[in-house]
Amino acid sequence: MKQQGKKKATIYDLSVLSGSSASTVSAVLNGTWRKRRIKESTAELIQNLAEQHQYTANLQARGLRNSRSGLVGLLLPVHDNRYFSSMAQTFEAQVRSHGKCPVVVSASRDPQEELATVATLISYSIDELFIAGATDPDSVHTLCEAAGIRHINIDLPGTKAPSVISDNYQGARMLTQAIIKRFDDSAAPLRPEELFLFGGRNDHASRERIKGFRDIKTEMLGQNSVACIQPTGYSPNMTQKAFEAFYEREGKLPRGLFINSSINFEGLLRFMAQHPHETFADLVVGCYDYDPFGSFLPFPVIMIRQDSESMLAKAFELIEEARPAVKIHLIQPELVHPRTALKGPLDSIRDIDA
Amino acid sequence: MKQQGKKKATIYDLSVLSGSSASTVSAVLNGTWRKRRIKESTAELIQNLAEQHQYTANLQARGLRNSRSGLVGLLLPVHDNRYFSSMAQTFEAQVRSHGKCPVVVSASRDPQEELATVATLISYSIDELFIAGATDPDSVHTLCEAAGIRHINIDLPGTKAPSVISDNYQGARMLTQAIIKRFDDSAAPLRPEELFLFGGRNDHASRERIKGFRDIKTEMLGQNSVACIQPTGYSPNMTQKAFEAFYEREGKLPRGLFINSSINFEGLLRFMAQHPHETFADLVVGCYDYDPFGSFLPFPVIMIRQDSESMLAKAFELIEEARPAVKIHLIQPELVHPRTALKGPLDSIRDIDA
DNA sequence: CTTTTTTGCACAATCGATGGTGCAAATAAT
DNA sequence: ATTATTTGCACCATCGATTGTGCAAAAAAG
Question: At CA B267, angle to CA B295 and CA A81, rounded to 5?
Fold first, then answer.
């Protein structure tokens, strides 16, 4: 009703008001009161008081006592791209539906920062940690292990905790194949030296994708030169420079382009800003990531949508197990043809339409 | 060195190991030891022990004692779009640089969920809250107020706490003007009934944008009919339906399209997926939001980049003030011409290039 | 060699919630 | 009316860190 002073009501306040002991109040308000054989009328009295005084439990106190916090963490490399932000969105919904509180943090793909961030989360006694796209999942594992925190790797696998990742090899094969096929009814079919891969670095995902790319390329086009693979890291800037360098050297872009991630794709955007439309006339891009806007660019863009919903679902399933096997679970990604607008987590949010 | 058992070391463990009292250990490890006149050698001893045993403070315990947590919250409507995810990215960096721990949560633009989420954050004794894009900032204010939590509105203003928002009116004027000008050297200049606004609803931002749109349209094209304004909410799906309905009715799209947000723009994407390229031949889109991929679509897309960095910087400045005035601070957004790839928060992340 | 001052630290209460234990009063069984 | 059960709840220690207070021992002053 009224919010009386400035400070929040505690069980002690309610204890005084109700004439019961603090432990009774506690039991009533955390739902264990039947187990503690509290009279129904007492419970009701206290519940009413709690409501009137807008009582909410101090979760730090509860967490301290329980050495659990109700927090579930998701560690991301970055927020600022559709793959991870949509993962965050899905994660939140999932965690909420389990009655816990989601905490999403990013660590910039920096091993130091990853460890520091996780250490902080552990200090808040988070209950579980989902480690997505960590550069050094095994060190993170060591921290979690020492703190007894259930954890699981997503997107990039570790060797010490169960991992759920997208099937990068298969995905890369699908994507590479789709790029090549796209040229089937073109006047000039794609030659091997016209199909390049840009982006990524020496992480598991990149390696698998490169392998898939190489294998299909060899199968379908008969060969693959290592020169056709340019791991430029995960920065738009370096990727742009790589494109500029290529263009400088060759006077044109490759006709077929496998781009390792949407972040690398942004490097191509930067390149595009510097060059006229015609530069991209005969281009087909395959991007290992899905971005709705990216799908509608002026040239055909084939994308891979990683199934982060399924990855998270599997991860939640595993983390619930008593002693999940330390193995890698592959989730199949989806090939997305050009000019496709997929539904996303936002579609389950109700708006004025609902 | 070794991580001994399973449980984390506490000041009591270190107290025993060092032969000092827990309060001394505490003082040493939280930096207040000079104030407490602890001998330097004692401090060193304890610090070494702490390091050896990988001591980290239990932040819940500290938070309980201090009734502060070191957590700083950012409440978002959704993660899954570039405006908010890049805000999250910037926010994290800022909070980290203040030595605090960022917590980003989303509430789906649902007033109920906003309140529930904030209540949870308050229960964890977060120190400060940045409320971005809340549908009901004033109710959130009431909660924060009652809990004595410093807070500030971003993106959508409230009437009870200081607000930092983008200058939606000016931005909309710039954007509308740019759309119209884009037709200047076209064969047929844009007529008023060819310029529509889609998206948004009855929030402050939408109202301001609609006002800016209407004013410029009247100024430059001589009139504006209310029929040219279609607030479809913030869902891709409803926006798509609105486009379909329009197309059904008119047999074409408007030549000039002001789209209220990138989320609404995704509605246009869905529409695009259903219609051939030609449908968009003579189209100019202005979108009140910036998305790098959106900037490179096959038709001219003029975008407004809201300056979330400046908004956050201003917000941090205000929240630090003792009693900031309850007023609205406007931050100028930036007009982004078609085919422009701006730098973003990711560019300050070092990669293998750094 | 006292008295005063400073140094260095230990003690204990506290933050709010939890849950094991124990004990009266109410009820049931004999 | 007694004894045995059950019901209903209060008491208290505990989680880990913080901080005001107080008190010895060491150093300085006299």
Answer: 50
- Give the pairing of strands A328-331 and B71-76: unpaired
Mutant choice from A92, A142, A145 vs B, greatest count of B C-beta within 10 A: A92
User: Mutating which of B59, B261, B274, B290 best tests the A interface, going by the most A Cβ atoms within 10 A?
Assistant: B59
Partners of A353 on chain B (C-beta within 8 Å) are 233, 235, 237-238
On whether any CB of chain B is under 8 Å from the CB of A115, the answer is: no
3 state SS of B183: coil
Among A305, A320, A348, the domain boundary falls at A305
Helix (H, G, I), strand (E, B) or coil at B279: helix
Q: Supply the pLDDT for residue A3.
A: 44
The answer as to whether B347 is a domain residue is: no
pLDDT in tens, B51-90: 999 999 999 999 999 999 999 999 999 999 999 999 999 9
R_g over Cα of chain A:
26
**In residues, how long is chain A?**
354
Rounded to whole angstroms, the Cα distance separating B207 from B197 reads 12
Q: Which residues contact B347 (CB under 8 A, 6 or more apart)?
A: A235, A236, A237
| Contact (Cβ atoms closer than 8 angstroms) between residue B108 and residue B77 | yes
pLDDT digits (tens, 9 = 90+) for A70-123: 999 999 999 999 999 999 999 999 999 988 999 999 998 999 999 999 999 999
Residue A352 has pLDDT above 80, yes or no: no
- Does the beta carbon of A244 lie under 8 angstroms from any beta carbon of chain B? no
pLDDT in tens, B326-353: 999 999 999 999 999 999 888 877 654 4
Structural domain that includes position B174: 168-305
Q: How far is the CA of B47 from the C1' of C4 (A)?
A: 34
- A151 and A188 within one domain: no
